[in-house]
């Protein structure tokens, strides 16, 4: 027997096992399961980027921002990917803050109504009801923002919080709501099936905006900053990889979202430009969110920036 070969093989096995044992398992929550903008988590797993940063991800999806914030408060997840307006929850006592912004103007969110509805523009929808995920969610915030943009009261487009896409779509099909605020890629799918038509993309109503941020529990920020740094490094490395590898990104995210590749390809083209690669909190966008939290009656007064997020991990 060639002992040199045997020893080399055993050494390689031990190194591989040690690498596996050395991975830190972190629990990450998506505020919704159907958003293309959250698939960097899955793409980073499949491409080995998270493992490169000694991380193993345990990914869970929720039915809206409020559900994600509940999980952060209950120590059910360590990190979360959710909405910019969700930063208001920290002011209400959730022990988590945003540690990086990763998506700008909300090209990823659209409004659909029935394909045969006698309307074609959001301007015709005053007083109508729209399904959103939860109170305080990105979908609710943007719906009210669209109402204010028409010169109406914030609730002249009426939000009906129903949770997951499945419950939203069921209410839509049975006429309990007039439309849905949802992921643009899902809107494309419903449009392709002739089950709905898109009447608005929400980027028009929030050109200066922080659509998505990464949240970390305060305990991690204070006691395990290296873990936060590694997570952010893995996330933004994945974003950079996606920008350079469209075809493979579409292939993976289509499987994750259970959508046809042509639909996901269209979403990629629409949304890749909103994905940031530095985590920076744009000051103008922060002002929009701070003032809107009061306008939407989510908070009584504007929060301070250090209540909402920390910049210790990004430029």
How would you characterize the largest beta sheet? 5 strands, mixed
Beta-strand percent range: 15-25%
Element-level helix/strand string? HEHHEHEHEEEHEHEHEEHHHHHH
Number of helices: 14
Quaternary organization: single chain
Helix content: 40-55%
Please give the radius of gyration in angstroms: 21 Å
Structural class: alpha/beta
| Terminus-to-terminus distance | 57 Å
Number of domains: 2
Write down how many β-strands occur, each being a DSSP E stretch of 2 or more residues: 10
Uncertain stretches: 5-11, 13-20
CATH topology of the largest domain: D-Maltodextrin-Binding Protein, domain 2
* CATH architectural arrangement of the largest domain: 3-Layer(aba) Sandwich
Mean of all residue-level pLDDT scores: 91
Please give the CATH class of the largest domain.
Alpha Beta
Strand order of the largest sheet: 2-1-3-10-4
- For CATH, the homologous superfamily of the largest domain is named as Periplasmic binding protein-like II
What is the topology?
Layout: H1 3-22, E1 24-30, H2 40-47, H3 49-52, E2 55-61, H4 65-73, E3 79-83, H5 88-91, E4 96-103, E5 109-114, E6 129-132, H6 138-149, E7 158-161, H7 165-173, E8 179-183, H8 184-192, E9 196-201, E10 212-217, H9 218-223, H10 225-244, H11 246-257, H12 261-271, H13 283-295, H14 305-308
Parallel strand pairs: 1-2, 1-3, 6-7, 6-8
Antiparallel strand pairs: 3-10, 4-10, 5-8, 5-9
Helix pairs in contact: 2-10, 2-11, 8-12, 11-12
Features of the shown structure:
five-stranded mixed beta sheet; 14 helices; alpha/beta; D-Maltodextrin-Binding Protein, domain 2; globular; 315 residues; 2 domains
């Amino acid at each position: 027997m060639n002992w040199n070969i045997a020893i080399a093989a055993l050494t390689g096995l031990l190194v591989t096992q040690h690498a596996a044992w050395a991975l830190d398992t972190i629990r990450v929550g998506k505020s919704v399961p159907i958003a293309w903008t959250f698939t960097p988590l899955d793409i980073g797993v499949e491409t080995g980027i998270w493992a490169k940063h000694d991380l193993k991800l345990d990914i869970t999806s929720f039915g809206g921002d409020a559900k994600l914030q509940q999980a952060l408060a209950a120590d059910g997840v360590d990190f979360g990917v959710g909405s910019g307006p969700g930063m208001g929850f920290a002011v209400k006592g959730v022990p988590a803050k945003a540690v990086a912004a990763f998506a700008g103007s909300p090209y990823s969110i659209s409004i659909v109504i029935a394909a045969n509805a006698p309307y074609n523009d959001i301007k015709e929808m005053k007083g109508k009801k729209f399904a959103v995920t939860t109170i305080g969610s990105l979908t609710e915030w943007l719906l009210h923002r669209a109402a204010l943009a028409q010169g109406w009261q914030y609730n002249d487009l009426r939000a009906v919080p129903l949770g997951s896409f499945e419950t939203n779509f069921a209410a839509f099909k049975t006429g309990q709501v007039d439309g849905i605020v949802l992921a643009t890629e899902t809107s494309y799918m419903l449009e392709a099936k002739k089950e709905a038509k898109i009447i608005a993309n929400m980027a028009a109503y929030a050109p200066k905006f922080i659509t998505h941020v990464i949240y970390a529990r305060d305990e991690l920020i204070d006691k395990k900053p290296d873990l936060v740094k590694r997570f952010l490094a893995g996330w933004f490395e994945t974003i950079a990889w996606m920008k350079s590898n469209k075809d493979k990104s579409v292939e993976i995210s289509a499987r994750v979202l259970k959508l046809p590749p042509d639909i996901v390809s269209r979403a990629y083209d629409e949304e890749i430009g909103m994905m940031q690669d530095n985590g920076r909190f744009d000051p103008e966008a922060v002002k929009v969110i701070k003032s809107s939290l009061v306008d939407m009656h989510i908070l009584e007064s504007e929060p301070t920036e250090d209540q909402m997020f920390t910049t210790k991990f990004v430029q």
